[in-house]
Amino acid sequence: MGLGSPIMSDDAVGLVVSERIGCMDLEDVDALQEAIGGLDIIPVIQGYRHAVIVDAIQTRQYEPGTIMLFDPEDFEPTITDASAHDVNLATAMSIGLNMDAASMPLSVRFVAVEVEDLQTVREGMTPKVAAAVDSAVNAVLHIISGFRGGADPE
Fold this sequence. Notes:
By secondary structure, the chain is an alpha/beta fold. The protein contains five helices and five strands, in the order E-H-E-H-E-E-H-E-H-H. The chain has helices at residues 13-23, 41-45, 89-100, 127-131, 133-149, and strands at 2-3, 33-34, 50-57, 67-70, 107-114.
């Protein structure tokens, strides 16, 4: 599943990666594009055995276009008590597991792309982020291959 906004410059990277995966018509792969966050993610991923979530990240610690792979445990320090309107992805995943663990994916991996611009309202990503799309697609394909083989896709 690609997350993001198609009109907020680099925030579209998750959507673009997911769209590219979808064009490959991979067996048993649903490539979703969602402009959601917080608790809204729970019903979208429920019922899947595995999930790959692709999204923009802005740490300012890496060059734009850097691809990072994360597991849910990597985000545990960011889980907080927050209002339903301010729930981050890690907190939403934790809530989903606490509400109905049996309906949540057995494994979730995150592909994050370091971005440069999340503020400009425009269609189209900055050049470094656009150039990273192929690498992000390859990262997703690698993870999917690991899910299918039952091995940890490191």
